[in-house]
User: What shape does this take?
Amino acid sequence: MKKIMMMAVLMTAAVGASAQSKPEAYFSFRELPNMLKWCPAPPDTTGAAFTYDIMQYMWGKELRQKDSVRTEIAIRDAVYSLECIAEEFSEPFGLKISEEETPEIWKLLRDAKATCENISGFPKYFYKRKRPFVRFQEHTATPQFEPELRRNFSYPSGHTILGWTSALLLTEINPERADTILARGMMYGESRVIVGAHWQSDVDAGRLAAAAVYARMHTSERFLEQMQLARQEFRCKAGLATIIEMKAYRKAAQKKAKSN
Assistant: This one.
């Protein structure tokens, strides 16, 4: 009986989620913390911080020669998409993430991705920092993305903002897997250095920006409601929900479907 009820709950949620597929950021760039006012500027080219950036860039190049497994992960991480996030984080999360199977988690990540993109654009075009492979006139491990990357500046790392924000959100949904989720989130940012697309300081700034986005989203009632649905969906899919929780989730999903 419990299994049948769980299936009904999830089917209802899927119907409600399919009615709304367009990303909707929780906050505009004007509503998010302005990185120019609190985040350190990228290092200049004469100090110790930039020396460390160069050392990390060389480390990434060396690793590409020595560790094909880690390099392959970094190449997969270079695909900037929600589908990539879902694919790469499903295993550490402990549950397959997809628009069809986990529509509420998907919607949470989708709208969070749109929010992440709103915090990074202004500092990128303010600082106009050259990417390491451009400065050194070399190729990355993902040459197919180089034309686009040349038109897009380096600081902060947008991939890292998305990856670390996603890791924080998935940890909130499934705190029991926090260690593995956060470890994968760290790897996701590190991958940008390994492929040669970003400086280490770009990645560090990306993680700071992600923390700012994560905190700001928690002031949105719409976000909090969606997080609740995502957590309930996870508990139902993972077989952890009580009958009361499943009923509450079904009621919320039905209400959401009607409003859409």
